[in-house]
Queue: 2 jobs
Job 1
Amino acid sequence: MTDHTLILEGISFPVYQVDTIIVGSGAASLNCAVHLHDYGHQDIALITEKVGGGTSNNTGSDKQTYYKLSLSGKEPDSPYDMARSLFDGGAMHGELALIEATMSAQEFFHLAQIGVQFPHNSLGGYVGYKTDHDPRQRATSAGPWTSHQMVQCLLKEVKGRNIPIFDEHDVVSLIVEDGRAAGVIGLDKNKLNEETFGLCFFQANQVVFGVGGPGGLYKTSVYPDCHVGAIGLALEVGAVARNLTESQYGLASIQFRWNVSGTYQQVIPRYISTDRDGHDEQEFLNDYFPTMSKLATDVFLKGYQWPFDPRKIPDYGSSLIDVLVYIETVIKGRRVYMDFRCNPLGDERIGAFSLDDLEPEAYTYLKNSEALFGSPIQRLEKMNPLAIELYRKNGIDLYQEPLEVAVCSQHNNGGLAGNLWWESNIAGLYPIGEVNGSHGVYRPGGSALNSGQVGSLRAAQKISHAPAPGKTAGWEKAAGERGKAMLSFIQHLFGPVSTVTAFREEFQSRMTQYGAHIRDPRKIEQALSAAYEQCSRAAEQKAASRREIPLALQNRHLVLAHAAYLQAIAAYLQRGGGSRGSYLVMDPQGQPVIDQLGDDWRYKPEVAPLREEVLETRLGADQRFHSTWKPRRPLPEEPSWFETVWGKFLSKEIFQTKGDI
């Protein structure tokens, strides 16, 4: 890595020249760095807003799942069988499903080798269990913090190789020259008060883009506070996105952001709502269930059936709870809590709560767990005391106070499009991890962690074995144009009254109301129009001090991204798409959510043929996003004649295969 300077408007900006710059420090980015180094590709560096600040390092669940090929037991499995499980979720290209399945064992053993504590038996078998949308027992776990362990072990490997890390640097722009990624512009947050405002440049032949999911787009989000995402930076320069419509949403606490799945629901806490000031306490679920037995059993089932799923609404299914929480929080503007101190309180119509009245699935589970007694907090203490300790460490005592929750954005199945090497339509740009939209509508639980590891390995393989294009004379012009735009944005940013926070709250509220798990074709066009109008005001933000420069620059790409997501949703609804994945499409002529909610709450069932297509979205010359539908590609026939494959491998011909985006 070498460094020099770039002069813009009389100001000297630092330039770092490196063959491959890796954006982000999550599990995917770190894994890519490790593999690149192992392949002998050592002119690399990472740039990250904060080491340890991403989603991988700060999220988990009762038993955070990693999905891979079955590696023990008598039940047969194969890469094609696993690929079919991924592919059958719909809207996923076949070759990506096969790659993620074929290479899952390789990446799983890589993690085990560097220290991730996946459990195995006395005979060395890595046993598994079934997860959602999984017909085998392919799932495994290293405990509540599986992805955290992955990050810590991979970070140790990166540091052991002395790979440079530019910490506390936001990426504020991609540099593209003649349709190829040529570097990034960073913001050194320790130098905001200098003449450069902290701006710095990275000249590179490849950009590995591991910026995670769109954590900053929603008002109600379970992404860590420190993670906002940066997909808008790639959308801005013409990268194609895929399936932005497909995300997962579920109940989560909002003071400390954490999914309230598993035993948090299985102990059957009391659900209450209040006004904004904490008064007017109501048992709001009581009005919608026929019996307390059904209500309590549905709360229990949210532990298994945590993500919102429209298929689990009919006949008082567990996802009805998500709809009712949305109505309380978003429509009525109230606050919702799970109270572990007290069992649900019934009324004369639905009856009182009794453990003996639970439906068999819930009753048997609690009986086998020796938890048929007491209050929810007592049952939680018996079944999972670490779940209580988790909140205590984050300033919430479940023995003393209720837990505020909402239906939150949790994971984006869509993202940027990539080919079979995870390379974008912009040559040299490799979106990896959650920002890569390889998933379809439904995916087995834990497959995202596998996808991030496999995708980062694929990017490392391509970069290491395919010749780089070499540096060009036009880089300074391309970098200068982007740099001047960033500099001008910052120079016009300051004013007496800050509007940065209000600007972010505006698009976050819009996404939670119109682009989350409840989607209304009658309202989406108005929301999209408002989104584009706000995009036009991004440069009008005002910051009261230089400390707000990073927030304003984040808003700049986040507001663009939210327009892309809403445009994709609008295109899906215009096509006649129905409820699927983790969202409900409203339809006045559709199926009722529940009779008590009336005709305003009717929804359109899934239109199954749309699973055979993927939705691609791209920014046009008119500065509007446009979406097109493409047939998904089937599972391919894998080249299998050994001598032929060996020859193409030795000649590196396989690395010249681009594949389709």
Job 2
Amino acid sequence: MRLIIFCFLFLIASAEAQHVFFPVESQQAYQAYRYQYRGYRRQVIDPALNLFRQNLAFKTNDSIVEVQIVDAVMADNIFNQPLFGFLYKDKVNFYSFEKKDQYIVKINPILHFESGQDDSGMIWTNKRGLEIKGNIGGFEKGVGFYTMLSENQALLPYPYRYFTDSLNFVPNELFYKKFKNKGAVDYFQARGYITFNAVKNYVKFQFGHDKNKIGNGYRSLILSDYAPQYLFLKINTDVERLHYQNLFTQFTDNGPIMSNVLFGKRYGAFHRLSYEFRPNLIFGVNEMVIFDRIDSTQSNQFDFNYLNPVIFYRSIESNLGSRDNSMIAIDGSWAIRNKYILYGQLVLDEFNLKFLKSSPDWWGNKYAYQLGVRFLDFLKLENLDINLEYNRCRPFTYSHMRPTQSFSHFNQALAHPLGANFAEIITDIRYNYKRWQAHATVIYAKMGRDSALNGRNYGSNILRPYTTRFSDYGSVMYVGKVTELLSANATLSFQIKTGIFADASLNYRKITGSDNLFFSLGLRINSHIKRFDY
């Protein structure tokens, strides 16, 4: 960890500015994704690697593209003149101030009030916070930064209180406390990072606390945005059509989450090498490893061997004599006539060709794959997008013999929220018309689950060690308690002012043995809608 900080401080002295990124779950990020397939090259945005740049109104050719992206999100809803003479001066951010070529700062309030009803009674959300973003040192020589703080209280829909009661976490969040009402929770959310160019236009750094996502789909089987934010150092290197990403992370162990104790740590090292065969055809190769290093004093340190950004992690693992949780993956996307996007992922946790042929139900055949297609401006209707996606994951994928090295963070999956031993079909529809935004998602999943949290291990719960597996053979899909999940949700939003939305949501969740219908009405300012899709 000290070495990471040292390298960071050393490089920042000669750093040049890089724009901050859109949060991975935001509407702006999705709009940037669409613009990738409207003829803009990867130097502007790369959706597969979450290089969604935030508009900072710099007077450069690059920022012109970014202004177009932000304006597309804001539709025709911008202030013609600053409010009270000093608010919304740039027509997008609540308050901003700058000094040409020296600094620029933009500040936005964050508010989200929502109330509704489900089968158990009232549900609600209360969120207040602040977002600050900008650049110090100017566009040519400076550092971009982003920070977001919010205080939250919520009474989640009844089915999602299960995670708090049984697995001791609030979905998508870190440490929480119980709130006044029975079942309500109180949690604090903080994100922040800085970005800079170490080598102009070639090597870019990002360091801080946030989520990351790799992939073009609704889900990601490599690294998703389901788990909460975490400490990371990201290095992106671009040379012509070649892109190389390194991601070094610190996660929280999946042990008991209690207050007034130092949580256990686990670490991750990821790298992705992608090549742009054509502007519309990208193929990537990924390698991921999760590890811990608990010694006799129970201290847990980052293994500096994994800091090497240009080495095969599997060779490090073998040379160290370690049993870390390493995986490899491939991903790709192909945009056809700027209307259709075909994409996919394949993750190999363990792979033995001999057993795959002779014993396909061997427990160690651990892999997952994704196939998807996205239709942009479907039927030539502008801003109508439809996404069809299929995900399939074998039992015991992402798990490990040491629970501290499962592919998880704060008891939550780093990849798919359903863990493993499932197949899933997703239909996702988005439509924007002027100030209106409509979003509907229908998900059907079939899973094989344990009969109880501590029952026989059938490979669905990635937090359990695979050494407790029910058998070496017989690991067919959906082995265990066959469970079906149907999740449908629809949200209609109206943009009142820049960044201010009124929402109406309707959700239905049916899982074998129970179902739940819930709806809500809300008002949010510079906030994102929380998804209930698992």
